[in-house]
Design a protein that fits this description.
This protein has helices spanning 113-122, 161-165, 169-179, 217-224, 238-250, 280-284, 329-339, 349-354, 361-369, 373-378, 390-395, 402-416, and strands spanning 2-4, 22-24, 29-33, 42-44, 51-52, 57-61, 69-70, 75-82, 88-95, 130-132, 146-151, 186-192, 203-209, 233-237, 257-262, 270-274, 293-297, 304-305, 315-320. Helix 3 (169-179) crosses helix 5. The protein is α/β, with parallel strands linked by helices. The chain folds into four domains: 2-13 and 106-250, Rossmann fold (3-Layer(aba) Sandwich); 29-95, Beta Barrel (OB fold (Dihydrolipoamide Acetyltransferase, E2P)), CATH 2.40.50; 256-320, Roll (Ubiquitin-like (UB roll)); 329-416, no CATH class. The chain has a six-stranded mixed beta sheet with strand order 1-13-12-11-14-10. A six-stranded mixed beta sheet has the order 2-16-15-19-17-18. The chain has a four-stranded antiparallel beta sheet with strand order 3-9-8-5, with no helix packed on it. Residues 24-96 form the NqrA N-terminal barrel-sandwich hybrid domain. This is Na(+)-translocating NADH-quinone reductase subunit A. Residues 111-252 form the NqrA second alpha/beta domain.
């Protein structure tokens, strides 16, 4: 099955990086971030100063105990920082990889859905799943109509998922085979052109082509299994699949993630195997140009400024404070001129290209900007989460936080259910 996505465009952040091979780096510190699980009310099972092994439980959610976070690697908890209303800001671990053997999980000889769900919860992997609509972590008792595995990335400067999956094909295939148990519907493996993926019975390969946002889960869901007012599908990224396969093969969690470091602020792009939640300052140390830069966890389009690598991010970006000019400078300048002033949403060609394939950007942006939930729902809000509007926000020059507006609308629609 092949889908060519119409529209979209690839923002220009310099030449496409050449990731030559893969290297490794174990940072001194890592962090689990509250922003990775918004709204969590943490019940801690460890205290500052505690020595933890890879896989040891760190905290769960007060209202949903299945939202379990475990230590990505062995070390000492050196900081537990809380945010507003006692929400979690971050939990920092100073690594000592060899200090304790990783925790071993019991993997059943015969895996069924209940056993798989219980294992994923216990090992902290359940929190990698997301629902559409609303982009929430699913309830274990629910079953999706379909499951989507995202093994394509069209974000600017992103590494090729095939380069990460190929050396770990055994784990990826094992994870794919197990994940079919989560749904009685179809399991889709969405990948790019030319990618060679493991063939797994019961998993439907879907090849997507086109510029960004052709690699987003929202685009895949719209083309293969659109969700309406009542339907629900789940999705997760390819590194979460590798992590599950590693757990099933070895009985211990995968203590690594592979991230691409790129941007006009680095001397040479590199594909780096590191520890989840790694300190970005350490990852980029010795790799930056002699100029002021800002570090993002994620891509230049939808990444976020911070000290640590966020969960689910397969890239980190170093960008000079004076950005590389866009190729289509005339179009971009025209869009900036049209959108300046009162903040009214005025149609322009760049918006049409940057919008998700099915979206009418101008009426939709007007609806979410004023909180018109009914119009936003009719125009497709239930198929979207924040990342789907990141390219639109970039095309707008970042003057409006469309992701936050969408989240407010989704929260209101969810409350009506």
């Amino acid at each position: 099955m092949k889908v060519r996505v119409r529209g979209g465009f690839n923002p220009w952040f310099g030449p496409a990086p050449s990731y030559d091979g893969e290297t490794g780096l174990v940072p001194r510190t890592i962090a689990i971030l509250g922003d990775d699980t918004p709204g969590i009310r943490a019940v801690f099972e460890q205290e500052e100063g505690a020595m933890v092994a890879a896989g040891d439980p760190l905290f769960t959610d007060r209202r949903r105990p299945e939202l379990r976070h475990v230590a990505p690697a062995a070390g000492i908890i050196t900081e537990i920082s809380r945010g507003p209303r006692r929400s979690l800001d971050r939990l920092v671990i100073t690594l000592d990889i060899d200090s304790k053997a990783p925790r071993t999980f019991m993997v059943p000889d015969r895996l069924d859905r209940n056993a798989l769900v219980a294992l994923m919860i216990e090992a902290g992997l359940w929190i990698g799943l997301r629902t559409r609509p609303f982009g929430r972590i699913p309830a274990p008792a629910d079953q999706p109509e379909a499951l989507f595995i995202t093994a394509i990335d069209t974000r600017p400067l992103a590494p090729d998922p095939s380069a990460v999956i190929t050396p770990r094909r055994l784990w990826f295939g094992r994870g794919l085979s197990a994940l079919r148990l989560l749904t009685s519907g179809k399991t889709y493996l969405c990948h790019g052109e030319g990618a060679v993926m493991p063939s797994v019975d019961g998993v439907v390969p879907a090849r997507f082509a086109g510029p960004h946002p052709a690699g987003l889960a929202g685009t895949h869901i719209h083309h293969l299994h659109p969700v309406g007012a009542r339907g629900t599908v789940w999705h997760l990224g390819y590194e979460e699949v590798i992590a599950l396969g590693h757990l099933l093969e070895t009985g211990i969690i995968w203590q690594r993630r592979v991230v691409g470091l790129a941007g006009d602020g680095v001397r040479q792009a590199v594909l780096l195997e590191t520890v989840p939640g790694a300190d970005l300052h350490e990852l980029f140390s010795g790799r930056l140009v002699e100029a002021p830069v800002r570090l993002l966890s994620g891509s230049p389009v939808d990444g976020r400024v911070g000290r640590y690598l966020a969960r689910g991010h397969q890239q980190a970006s170093a960008l000079r404070h004076a950005p590389v000019p866009e190729r289509s400078t005339g179009l971009r300048h025209a869009a900036d001129w049209l959108m300046r002033g009162s903040g009214a949403v005025i149609p322009n060609r760049l918006q049409e290209s940057a919008a998700p394939p099915f979206l009418l950007p101008v009426p939709f942006l007007r609806a979410i900007s004023v909180g018109d939930t009914e119009t936003a729902r009719r125009l497709g809000a239930l198929e979207l989460i924040e990342e789907d509007l990141a390219l639109l926000a970039y095309a707008d020059g970042g003057k409006a936080d469309f992701g936050r507006m969408l989240r407010n609308v989704l929260d209101a629609l969810e409350a009506e259910r």
